[in-house]
Predict the 3D structure of the following.
Amino acid sequence: MAGLVATAPCTILCLFAFVVASANDISLHAMAAKCSRQASRQAEEAIDTLINSHLQPDDMVPASCPLQQDRNIFKYHNRLRDLESSSHATCSSCGKAFTNVDFLDQHLHRRHSSQLLPSQANDTDTLLCLADYCDVLQCEVFDQPATVRVLAQRKSDCSDQSFKLAQQHCLEVVQQCSAGRLMEQRLRRRICSRLSCDFWEHLREDTRSLSPLEIAQFLFGCTCLMLSCVWFLALLNDDYSAEDTTDWLIHVLNLKAIVRRETALRTSSRQDF
């Protein structure tokens, strides 16, 4: 009886630790279920581009900083991804292949949910959903180029007031991720300064595609430049005959007619659509 009484506190402590660990795992699985894997991937790329690639040798990122790839709640699942190319992804746990990483992520969620938090993991209390910081990192900018181009065009009616909450969040996060004033200033320039309409205006200009009219104007300019060069060479070369120059002109005029016809066809097709 005395032995049972002596071991009772130890048993209670073990049960308490088990309950706490189980509750933590349940909360993390619930967090992972609500967290966007795609946005978390984009957040990782943003962290690598905006922070990791610009760290100075003496920069020390505090452990409390949420903008760390090692704190991604999907980091253990990500280790099971074998990405050979953008069109071929393999699960290293079972060997099944997929045409893109999105299908692989769905497979990991359905078939390997038990490996989301391995039993030997000792850092589960530091994991978080990186997608929750996409308002600061502007994760959508790190999507496919075609998607970014569409997003940039949609921001044409941008208002700086819409970035107010994101800017406040950014300042709080930067303070958590800075080990000194100089580092904080650099992170503000790298991250928080992008939260403005000016950034999207520059992005829209950088991703804007040329219209058929602009293409035709460019080709016309090139044609004029080429004709000027040919005419200049003809004046310098006595052996260059007028017949040769005429042949060049005929060839160039034919090209111009083709360009005008293609532009008209595209315009009419767009109007019909």
The chain is about 60% helix and 5% strand.
